[in-house]
Amino acid sequence: MNQPPLVWPASSPVAAPQAPAISSDCGSLVRLATLGAVIGGSLAAARQFDRIQAGEQLPNLALVETGKSAVAAGVATAAAGAVASSVADQGALRLGLMFLAGSAVFYGLRQWTEGEGDE
After folding, report:
1. Which residues are within 8 A (CB) of 83 and not within 5 positions of it... i.e. 6 or more apart?
2. What is any Pfam family matched here (predicted)?
3. 23, pLDDT greater than 50
């Protein structure tokens, strides 16, 4: 007696495993951090270039300052995105929260890093 092979029913209550939702949020935060670092680093590089041309800054120190600004802008942008996405999905409220949170984090990071060499 030949039995047909067992076939898993299409309406089975067991669903295929899916990636946790947090992975897409983390990916979004990484993209935001990268975008913030690129924009912040670009602005800092332009400012440092002007300072080098004016004789106010050495090129090596300008690179360090540009890197610090890029990292701070990336961290601030990621933090702002996390805060904003926990409150609103879109709209003016989200943009306002991103602006406020990003400004606060960036300000705090700049205050912390600028005071390092004073001691």
Report:
1. 97, 98, 101
2. MamC
3. no
Token pair in block for residue 42: 């670009």
Count of residues making up the chain: 119
Do 117 and 104 contact (CB within 8 A), yes or no?
Answer: no
Between 40-44, 45-49, 58-62, 112-116, the lowest mean confidence (pLDDT) is in 112-116
Hey, what amino acid is at 13? P
Instruction: Give the model confidence (pLDDT) of 53-74 as tens digits.
Output: 999 999 999 999 999 999 999 9
Single-letter amino acid code for the residue at 108: G
Residue 101 · residue 56 · CB < 8 Å: no
